[in-house]
Amino acid sequence: MKSLPFAALLMTMLSGCSLFQVHTNLDKENFTEYFKPGSVTVLEKAQVLDVNATPIGTVEGETCQSKNTQAPPNMIDAQTDARRKVADMGGNAIVFGKCINMPATTECVSSMVCYGQAYKVQDSE
User: Fold this and answer.
1) Do residues 68 and 109 make contact, with C-beta atoms less than 8 angstroms apart?
2) pLDDT > 80? residue 24
3) Closest C-alpha to 95, from 119, 74, 75, 112
4) How far is 94 from 32, CA to CA, in rounded Å?
5) What b-and-e string marks burial along 9-47, b requiring 16 or more CB atoms within 10 Å of the CB?
6) pTM to 2 decimal places
7) Do 63 and 12 touch, CB atoms closer than 8 A?
8) For the chain, how big is the Rg over CA atoms in Å?
9) How far apart are CA 97 and CA 99, in angstroms?
10) What digits encode the pLDDT tens for the residues 37-88?
């Protein structure tokens, strides 16, 4: 019998929550853009021969340190930018050539650019 008032109280509390609406800045497009580089596989040059890969173009990814107080550019961020561009081209694989530290410009105190070849790899099924 003691559990009946507790259950009624719990139901009242839970049903009261349905009156509240939650508004967030989450957007499906933000998720799609964020996870886009994950759809692009990094391959070694020799692996391209083992898969059904069609070259679709060259890409470059860049990361820029615009202020001295920011973290310096790094290869991972530049490669992630390149992978995002491969996905935008409709590709799903990349072979990186090289990454280069670039000289300072008016926009970037320091920057790094990574170059690669974009591919569309067909499923082996």
Assistant:
1) yes
2) no
3) 119
4) 19
5) eeeeeeeeeeeeeeeeeeeeeeeeeeebbeebeebeeee
6) 0.73
7) no
8) 24
9) 7
10) 778 999 999 998 888 899 999 999 999 999 999 999 999 999 999 999 999 9
Contact 58, 116 (CB under 8 A): yes
Q: How far apart are the first and last CA of the chain?
A: 62
CB of 54 closer than 8 Å to CB of 108: no
- Which 3-state string (H, E, C) describes the chain? CCHHHHHHHHHHHHHHHCCCCCCCCCCHHHHHHHHHHHHCEECCHHHHHHCCEEEEEEEEEEEEECCCCCCCCCHHHHHHHHHHHHHHCCCCEEEEEEEEEECCCCCCCEEEEEEEEEEEECCCC
CA 112/CA 79 separation, integer angstroms: 10
